[in-house]
Amino acid sequence: MKSAPDWFMFFIIFWAVVMVGAMAIGGFFMFRKFLKVLPQRDGKSKLDWQNYWVERSRSMWTDESKGFLDELVSPVPSAFRDIAKHSIAAKIGQVAIDNGASEVTRDHCIEGYIRATPKRDYRSLVSFLERKGIDYDPYRHLLNK
To answer: Can you tell me where the transmembrane regions are (predicted)?
Structure first.
């Protein structure tokens, strides 16, 4: 029996490495999603709380605040934009309700956007806000926590 050419063996090895890498990356993101579904001390998961705040604040959103939220999530890659928009909207709704507001304002959006952003992304958040000309000075203290 004739053995396979060298180039074919390298081709098989290359695709095996690509497949293992793709499965590892997918597994990482699935594990992160799994952690969000686990219940916390209060019995609700992180996703349960996000859904709670979005539903509770749904009537408070104006067209202007929805448009501003769309502008804030514009730098997020389109594949993740819906998920990011939902989690940011939940934090904005929580901020508005905690402040006793009757509707979501631009200030609530800026504060909620900063609070919803992980610390590792603060540098890009600040550069995005400055590039868009959005004044975040009243909330600069949130970036130092």
So the answer is: 6-31
Q: Is-contact 82 94, C-beta < 8 A?
A: no
Indicate yes or no: pTM above 0.70: yes
C-beta of residue 92 within 8 angstroms of C-beta of residue 104: yes
Phi then psi dihedrals of residue 33, to 5 deg? -65, -40
What is the end-to-end Cα distance of the chain in Å, rounded? 68
Q: Which residues of 47-100 form beta strands (DSSP E)?
A: none
Output the CA torsion 54→115→44→86 (10° steps): 40
| Whole-number Å distance between alpha carbons of 71 and 29 | 25
Taking only the tens place, the pLDDT of each residue in 85-134 is 999 999 999 999 999 989 999 999 999 999 998 898 889 989 999 999 98
Tokens of 76: 């997020």
